[in-house]
Amino acid sequence: MSHSESKARVVVTRRNFPEVIAELEPVFSLDHNADDTLWSPAELRARAANAQALYVVASDKVDGALLDAAPGLKMVATGSVGTNHIDLEACRARGIAVTNTPDVLSEATADMAWTLLMAAARRVTESERWLRAGLWQRWAWDQFLGQDVFGSTLGIIGMGRIGSAIARRARGFGMQIVYTNRSPAANELELGASRVELSELLRSADYVMLVLPYSPASHHLIGAAELATMKSSAVLINIARGGIVDDVALALALKKGQIAAAGLDVYEGEPALHLGLLECDNIVMTPHIGSATRSSRVGMAMLAAQNLLAWQRGEALLTPVH
Ligand code: DGY
Questions:
Q1: CB < 8 Å & 24+ apart, contacts of 54-57
Q2: Disulfide: which of 5, 104, 253, 306 matches 258 by Cβ 3.0-4.6 Å?
Q3: From the CA of 262, how far away is ligand 1's center (Å)?
Q4: What is the pLDDT of residue 78?
Q5: Which one of 13, 14, 81, 307 would you pick to mutate in the ligand 1 pocket, going by the greatest count of ligand atoms within 8 A of its CB?
Q6: Taking the alpha carbons of 124, 125, 126, 131 in that order, is the dihedral positive or negative?
Q7: Catalytic member of 23, 188, 200, 270
Q8: Alpha-carbon span 322 to 92, nearest angstrom
């Protein structure tokens, strides 16, 4: 067996940072998608067929069909904190280890949540489009009136690491914080946050921030019925996952003025978008870049690589999902 054949084979599904590949290259036999070609599920299955590990991202579906096609698979490292793209049960049943990338992205993602909140509240992208279109002729009292942020109420759905980081920033804006979470947050006193029922949060919050994982239980958690209970001045921000919001219902609610605005970084079925959303001027939209600062993304990519290296050395995984 040649030296390269004795190395574990790792499929790296997306173009990765050179410094991360440099860590992996001496140790593994890499199938690195360096030119970022869009691999179909069939292509990924073919490449995984003789792999021992997969280095995936949140847009790669790791389902039973992929696992069946990769009988030698021992490890899946995802460069994301979210794991809803991975069939964890199927991995567990096959003894395949799974790691994700918590913590390293929390502050950057909280910053982005606030970026969307502020931009949606103060109609930043809508007024910029108008200005760039050459429509600005004079100042007017009622031009692009938005929502107050300071002193308002922030409702956080999902008070994990990122939710807590968002809440810490809210204190500087003198906000009241209400939240929902499976269990009370250990830091709720420090955050000055009160745990309430979802219905109360939706009724009382000026800003509704989604920061919970996607699962069958959170599918369309915010739909027509929930949007109807929110304030007409409310702003909805989704920094979590597409599918938690019913995008069709959201576009209708925004068009009807049922709520004031939305800030979205994630979409059901992304990168495809529900056209109704694109028709709404009162949405600030970004393309799933919540964690996209250089240090955060390199940190995530490197953490996934370190997990692979720990697995290869037979050491404890740094951030195991199970
Ligand atoms: C995550 O880490 O889950 C982000 O959504 C990036 O994919």
A1: 54/10, 54/11, 54/13, 55/10, 55/11, 55/12, 55/13, 55/16, 55/24, 55/79, 55/304, 55/305, 55/308, 56/13, 56/85, 56/86, 57/13, 57/14
A2: 253
A3: 20
A4: 98
A5: 81
A6: positive
A7: 270
A8: 8
User: Under CATH, what is the fold of the domain 106-285?
Assistant: Rossmann fold (3.40.50)
Domain range 9-104+294-313, CATH class? alpha beta
pLDDT digits (tens, 9 = 90+) for 244-256: 999 999 999 999 9
| Cβ of residue 86 lying under 6 Å from some atom of ligand 1 | no
Catalytic annotation, pick one of 107, 241, 268, 297:
241
Out of 288, 297, 315, 322, the active site residue is: 288
How many whole angstroms from 301 Cα to the centroid of ligand 1? 11
Give the β-pairing of 53-56 and 29-32. unpaired
Q: Which residues contact 93 (CB under 8 A, 6 or more apart)?
A: none
Query: Residue 245's closest CA among 272, 271, 214, 276?
Result: 214
Q: pLDDT tens digit string along 291-309?
A: 999 999 999 999 999 999 9
Cα separation, 87 vs 119, whole angstroms: 35
> Span 139-158, mean pLDDT?
98
Is 322:98 a contact under the CB 8 Å cutoff?
yes
Give the C-alpha distances (Å, rounded to integers) separating 237 from 178, 216, 240, 265.
Answer: 15, 20, 9, 8
Mean pLDDT of the residues in the chain? 97
Domain 9-104+294-313 and domain 106-285, same fold? Reply is: yes
Q: What is the pLDDT of residues 218-244, one digit of tens each?
A: 999 999 999 999 999 999 999 999 999
How many whole angstroms from 140 Cα to the centroid of ligand 1? Answer: 41
- Domains of the chain, residue spans: 9-104+294-313, 106-285
pLDDT computed for residue 67 by the predictor: 98
Does residue 3 surpass a pLDDT of 60?
A: no
45 flagged as catalytic: no
Going by pLDDT thresholds of 50, 70 and 90, the confidence category of residue 5 is low
